[in-house]
Amino acid sequence: MESEQLFHRGYCRNSYNSITSVSSDEELLDGAGVIMDFQTSEDDNLLDGDTAVGTHYTMTNGGSISSSTHLLDLLDEPIPGVGTYDDFHTIDWVREKCKDRERHRRINSKKKESAWEMTKSLYDAWSGWLVVTLTGLASGALAGLIDIAADWMTDLKEGICLSALWYNHEQCCWGSNETTFEERDKCPQWKTWAELIIGQAEMMYIFWALSFAFLAVSLVKVFAPYACGSGIPEIKTILSGFIIRGYLGKWTLMIKTVTLVLAVASGLSLGKEGPLVHVACCCGNIFSYLFKYSTNEAKKREVLSAASAAGVSVAFGAPIGGVLFSLEEVSYYFPLKTLWRSFFAALVAAFVLRSINPFGNSRLVLFYVEYHTPWYLFELFPFILLGVFGGLWGAFFIRANIAWCRRRKSTKFGKYPVLEVIVVAAITAVVAFPNPYTRLNTSELIKELFTDCGPLESSSLCDYRNDMNASKIVDDIPDRPAGLGVYSAIWQLCLALIFKIIMTVFTFGIKVPSGLFIPSMAIGAIAGRIVGIAVEQLAYYHHDWFIFKEWCEVGADCITPGLYAMVGAAACLGGVTRMTVSLVVIVFELTGGLEYIVPLMAAVMTSKWVGDAFGREGIYEAHIRLNGYPFLDAKEEFTHTTLAADVMRPRRSDPPLAVLTQDNMTVDDIENMINETSYNGFPVIMSRESQRLVGFALRRDLTIAIESARKKQEGIVGSSRVCFAQHTPSLPAESPRPLKLRSILDMSPFTVTDHTPMEIVVDIFRKLGLRQCLVTHNGSLLGIITKKNMVAHLEELTRRAEPLTPPWYHHKKRHPPSYGPDGKPRPRLHHVQLSSAAEDGEEAGEEACLLSSSSL
Predict the structure, then answer these.
(1) Is the peptide bond before 650 cis (omega within 30 degrees of 0)?
(2) What are phi and psi for residue 242, nearest 5 degrees?
(3) In angstroms, rounded to a whole number, what is the distance separating the alpha carbons of residues 371 and 560?
(4) How does DSSP classify residue 482?
(5) Which ranges in 174-296 belong to alpha helices (H)?
(6) Which intervals of the chain are annotated as region Disordered (predicted)?
(7) pLDDT digits (tens, 9 = 90+) for 680-712
(8) How many CB atoms are located within 10 Å of the residue 182 CB?
(9) What is the pTM of this model?
(10) Is the sign of the CA dihedral 668, 669, 674, 675 positive or negative?
């Protein structure tokens, strides 16, 4: 089965080095000496599409940019397939935007011709709102279905409702008249497996956990290899312009929806919030094919940005946080129109989920809480400590998880994904069962840790010794000394914290749907609750200390341990993902209290600063780099002094650049060049002697155009002259009919000079979404820079700089000094090499030096 072969070849959470096509995305030039290999198999299918247009940008030596748009000269009959993209290729944002502008001009020019054309124009204008509405409706409905099914299957590990098998534990006891307030979770209709099968509660728990995990990984392996993992790293890569066919398809949607329920119910240390973003993007991708977005990859990514906002909206019940998450974390291109549509999609998704009411509490999430006690100034210190813990946890998790995933990919252990999932699930179930806090569903654990202790709470965390003389108010219970239940709960929480830390490292990245939001929040909530109880008891026994004296009087409700759990959860999630604004808003929407924004901001920023001190990558960027995706992170700054000539291909030791001439080559010559090379495109020049640039032709367009001409045009043979010029040159009378391919030629490729600083080139690639740009010298073609070359160059500079200086060094000095140790100005040369140890001794603060005899 093809999906099984893809799975074994590392389709999910693996580099796609072995599964991309011979005409790989960035293989415009030989990849010798480049870090990542984008070579792919030869079985990629070509997809039909529309004829594209190109845009012209020219960079001068002075760095100014002039732009002018030229539409390609279209043939009388468009060539099907020209202007589309193969799998594992990067889209041309500039060309896609030009296609959309031309489509708008065509529609606007015809809308006054008839009522039908006016109707088509209105439908086109409203299609964007229709697709995000459908996406929001589907995302909310699927999220509600997943929540209900996951709760039922999670409780199935503990027992079963005899009166109605489809009820979970809570629903089973709702209609019981024999339930007491003290034991409201016990009713005769609900039977545990220990009651049904004497002494087999633990065995049934492990059996159901292994069954759910095995079924989940089997469905993923057989039907949809792309359904595994979180999906956010790949969505970030797709939104940056990369093509991964099938990743957002209908099979992936169906299998991920089903297996996400199974994975959560198995008790693995994972969450459903991250995969819900993938599910929502699958809905957006499918609905986009019903409208104008099916033929324009750039416009489709605007829909996917709105869909990701809807996914976070239903995952956390935070519509505004979802919009900010899409803007801050996943989107590469986010115009104002996309902001409005993202807000509307998040609104619709949250409304649908609220209508379904999956948790029966009239809330969008299970762990919605409200606090009634304000925070005090002295509490900022423990909040910041929780931020430090979150940053340290994030740095540790990223390094440990990436190291384990890299080991999985490089050893035989990665060849047995089903066995890995079964082993992880078995260890998790066996170790988790004895501890009530690890046996709980992770969302329910977070809910219990967030909840403030009131007179109606029966948890061990609320087992305080009551003062009989103190007045008891429902919403304001004074601080009390901890009882034996609290100390026992703290001990169990410490064990749960260690267990969660270890298992999350090994669980994230296995071949089942696995989110990271909930496990990270659980780790932070456990740590925060422990710190909150410690501060509470410290304030109770030492209320006369100067830090407590002003706020914590005897009999006052001073400290809220649940608030510390919430702050710790935000800090740990921020340390792993390096989210800031969107994370604070998401957690704020969870609690509904404006007064806790300052503690959240302090903890989240502290966790980000601490995490950045050990490495500036979040977990999603780290997995993108591990998988080898061509992703240029807009958050990173280019701090080196290289030139375009240092990065362009070919190098001095490489073969000459493969080029086409505008009117001196035959069909056989071009076909031989296509067959003998794996480049994705070819620059077109006037002649071999002048090297003056005419344009750029894509390999895929050339292949499709030649095949179409052989079938539809008479007289086209192997010796036919191929002409890219506007006018066909004079040919002998006996010559075969020439083939005109000017229509597929991009006559305005983006060019830079060989002396353009790479920091400018990097910004151009990021902001314009280029696939490649050509390098010229005085108008003559020298070489080419592709997105692959750019990513490889940045990777090489980072790899060479890391052993030399600590990560926080780059915050102090961005550029190497302009003067050397001898006080003389440095020459501006073509190659970069890290400074030697001897030179570091003379000038310890120098990051790199320019040497004429070195090369990358």
Answers:
(1) yes
(2) -90, 145
(3) 8
(4) B
(5) 193-196, 201-223, 232-239, 250-265, 273-288
(6) 805-856
(7) 889 999 888 888 888 999 888 898 888 888 888
(8) 8
(9) 0.79
(10) positive
